[in-house]
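Re: [ENG-882] Designed sequences occasionally contain unexpected residues at chain ends

Forwarding the minimal case from QA. Structure tokens:
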């Protein structure tokens, strides 16, 4: 994996760097709750008084109701009632493609059975955030930007990881696979449509996904995607980053990033930074008993056959010395047993704290692990 990344970045320093300036319009495909726009806003703020660029959310594409409503609450903060004067049918057409379970979209019949206040909430959030909702129905022209020399278009496309993650079923992302990770190729379709219609392409593309994307199982699909972007005129820069080494966060979370810049441009990923905080610094010293898991639940979690064996990982002695949390996988975080809470709680109980009885913590940890 690392050899491949080094190979594709070998000649990056030959080309000039792309400099952000002026108006930066951001398009977020698979937007979620907007972590991409949040990161760019932090960079904008870091410029201080001598700003050279300004970030603006231009379009998003997100089908999950909870996510795009939250996006509006966090970022856009537009609470206008756009539903006034609109019929129920008009609102349903606008929000069609919405999902409530992150797996499948609601049918028109299912949408029509939703309470009218829910429908209005979805409609208002989609209008406020310029949400295109269903990526399979997005046309190239829907990105809606022209060739303006005074602006830069950044488009992110952190497509679903469920089918390539070590914790998933690894169904893959091949063209025509019909998997959620295979939605990557909808991005290809959208870019192709813009090129065929002589519409400008985004200046910068940003991709983030699980590091397993570069494994032997999926590397050929990834290389095919890289070649496609190169054929459109993009220079690709790829690297695997770990939050514990590059983000200053005491959690191992490796993700592969690819920055694709339209034209021949160099790019350098952030250098490693020292880890100044330990996991114990982020944990509360007093936790309400209602957050404790009973023995039956813990026993069920211990029987999981997942990649990480969450309980064993959480209390692993070596990791305790590191004081760094392992990656929390989709299966752990989304489990009905509250896997994330369980792991954090067990780690908390195995890390000595000056304000608590160390012997008591050891006894509790031993009791829950036996």
């Amino acid at each position: 994996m690392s050899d491949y990344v080094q190979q594709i970045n070998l000649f990056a320093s030959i080309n000039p760097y792309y400099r952000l300036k002026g108006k930066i319009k951001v398009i977020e495909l698979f937007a979620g709750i907007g972590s991409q726009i949040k990161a760019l806003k932090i960079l904008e703020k870091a410029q201080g008084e001598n700003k050279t660029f300004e970030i603006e959310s231009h379009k998003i594409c997100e089908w999950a109701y909870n996510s795009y409503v939250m996006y509006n609450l966090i970022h856009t903060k537009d609470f206008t009632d756009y539903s006034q004067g609109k019929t129920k049918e008009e609102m349903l057409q606008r929000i069609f493609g919405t999902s409530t379970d992150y797996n499948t979209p609601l049918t028109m019949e299912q949408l029509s059975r939703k309470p009218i206040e829910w429908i209005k909430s979805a409609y208002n959030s989609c209008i406020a955030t310029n949400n295109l909702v269903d990526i399979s129905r997005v046309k190239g022209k829907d990105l809606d930007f022209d060739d303006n020399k005074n602006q830069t278009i950044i488009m992110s496309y952190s497509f679903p990881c469920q089918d390539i993650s070590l914790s998933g079923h690894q169904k893959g992302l091949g063209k025509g696979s019909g998997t959620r990770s295979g939605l990557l190729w909808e991005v290809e379709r959208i870019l192709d449509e813009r090129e065929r219609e002589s519409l400008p392409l985004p200046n910068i593309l940003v991709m983030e996904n699980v590091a397993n994307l570069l494994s032997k199982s999926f590397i050929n699909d990834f290389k095919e995607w890289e070649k496609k972007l190169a054929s459109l005129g993009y220079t690709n820069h790829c690297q695997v980053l770990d939050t514990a080494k590059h983000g200053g966060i005491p959690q191992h979370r490796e993700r592969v990033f690819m920055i694709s810049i339209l034209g021949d441009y160099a790019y350098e990923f952030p250098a490693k930074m020292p880890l100044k905080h330990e996991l114990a610094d982020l944990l509360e010293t007093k936790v309400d008993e209602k957050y404790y898991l009973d023995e039956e639940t813990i026993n069920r979690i211990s029987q999981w056959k997942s990649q990480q064996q969450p309980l064993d990982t959480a209390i692993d002695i070596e990791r305790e010395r590191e004081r760094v949390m392992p990656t929390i996988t989709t299966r752990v975080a989304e489990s009905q047993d509250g896997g994330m809470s369980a792991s954090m709680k067990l780690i908390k109980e195995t890390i000595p704290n000056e304000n608590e009885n160390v012997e008591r913590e050891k006894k509790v940890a031993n009791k829950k692990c036996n």
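QA comment: On inspection the terminal residues look reasonable. The domain at 2-262 is CATH 3.40.50.150 (Rossmann fold). Proposing we downgrade this to a documentation issue.
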